[in-house]
Design brief:
40% strand; alpha+beta; eight-stranded mixed beta sheet
Amino acid sequence: MPELILTEIDHVAIAVNDLDAAIGWYAETFGATVDHRETVESDGVEEALLKVADSYVQLLTPTNDTSPVAKYLANKGEGLHHIGYRVDDCAAALEAVKASGGRVIDEAPRPGSRGTTVAFVHPKTSFGTLIELVQE
């Protein structure tokens, strides 16, 4: 059995049409507040991270019509988009996926939000779940 690569859940990402409305609902319903907000131009999204213990709920909305999140919303509507797992070494985790025959979206790690390094694993590899590997 290989060494454990996933260290904890970094975030659960939820695609939404109206970021401010979603932020307001989480604040009013659960008392959750925004810990970090950022536009990630390379992914065509604006995100708000709501801190929950040592993890986040990541609310995502597209900033353009060609964003993968825009396509997701058009096809599936609002809801769970992906799960992010923390890893100590994003490159090594990505190579482990490839070595096991898994499909990846990112061939190499790339910059993510809040100064992280990230890479995505294709959902056809991971039983229908889009996975983001996140190195802080």
